[in-house]
Amino acid sequence: YREGPLLDAAFLSLLRNKLAQEVGRDADRPGYDGLIQLSQLLMAKYKAKSDVEQATVRILNSMFPQSLLRLFRAVVLPINKGKLAAILSARVTQATCQWLMGTCSISSVELSDGTSIPSGVLVEKCKYLEHSKCAGICIHTCKLPTQAFISKELGVPLLMEPNFADLSCQFKFGVEAPSPEDDPSVSTPCLEMCPTAIARKSSTPLCP
Known about the structure:
By secondary structure, the chain is an alpha+beta fold. The chain has one domain (6-200). 52% of the residues lie in helices and 12% in strands. The protein has helices at 6-23, 31-45, 49-62, 66-76, 83-96, 98-101, 127-132, 135-154, 195-200; strands at residues 104-110, 116-123, 158-162, 169-173. It has a four-stranded antiparallel beta sheet. The chain starts with 5 loop residues before the first helix and ends in an 8-residue tail after the last helix. The mean pLDDT is 92.
């Protein structure tokens, strides 16, 4: 993976700064590696993983103008029962987040009413998961807080389905996520490549 144009570098810098503010210090490493280090520090800061998720939601909230979120909910969300909002959310994600996730493409999603719309984003091999090597970081600093943020602040249901075997991830905008208790990905065991698990040589089956 390569960091792309200036806009990608700006997004990386913004997210790093917000993470550093939440953690209370900056990373020692430059660039994307520093972003991963900050995510590790965020995981280590809180004992309860729900606190990690809430911290990540705060970070996401701080990155978006509240007036823009209100405008989206007021103008876009009511159109065609939220389907346009789901499609636009997928398009924006695909266009702006490849620096974070790697190569991704728009995919079709089947909604609860039986219709299919192009409101999915398929991440071929998640850069964030590949570099962090940690299912816990994926779940608690990405999947669960992103689902919560998009659902609450945009009004668009979102289900994210990470595949820990091939490191792909399917975003499904317009699809309700199950509760964490009913989501099988939340109880994913530590990955073999996880540096935290390797370092502690623990027999604990669940990722921290």
